[in-house]
Design a protein that fits this description.
single chain, seven-stranded mixed beta sheet, four-stranded antiparallel beta sheet
């Protein structure tokens, strides 16, 4: 059973930064996509970023390109999302999640989520 545990959310002012972490365990395949999606109240879930386990290729939602960076530490089984220049519209619950590949639309496993609030 895959388990994903997120941390690092919080309250930050516009223009500020946060780093989210996701520790994963129980993976049975070496080939998958892992990343983050977010969901704000009253809005649909949207994929924010993904990194491929096979080649490290990264993918980003257009609205976060240039501001967010996804990375991974295979030794620690941890994926990070560095979020800079945060905007109020980035406010949401952020979930770490896996897919069969980053190009897939369907998430297979996800964590409990961590709240990110961008407000002055």
């Amino acid at each position: 059973q895959v388990q994903l545990v997120e941390s690092g959310g919080g309250l930050v002012q516009p223009g500020g930064s946060l780093r989210l972490s996701c520790v994963g365990s129980g993976f049975t395949s070496d080939y998958y996509g892992i990343g983050w999606f977010r969901q704000a109240p009253g809005k649909e879930r949207e994929g924010v970023s993904c990194i491929s386990s096979s080649d490290g290729r990264t993918y980003y939602l257009d609205s976060v390109k240039g501001r967010f960076t996804i990375s991974r530490d295979n030794v620690k089984n941890t994926v990070y999302l560095q979020m800079n220049s945060l905007k109020p519209e980035d406010t949401a619950v952020y979930y770490c999640a896996t897919k069969s590949s980053c190009k897939s639309r369907n998430y297979v496993y996800w964590g409990q989520g961590t709240q990110v609030t961008v407000s002055s």
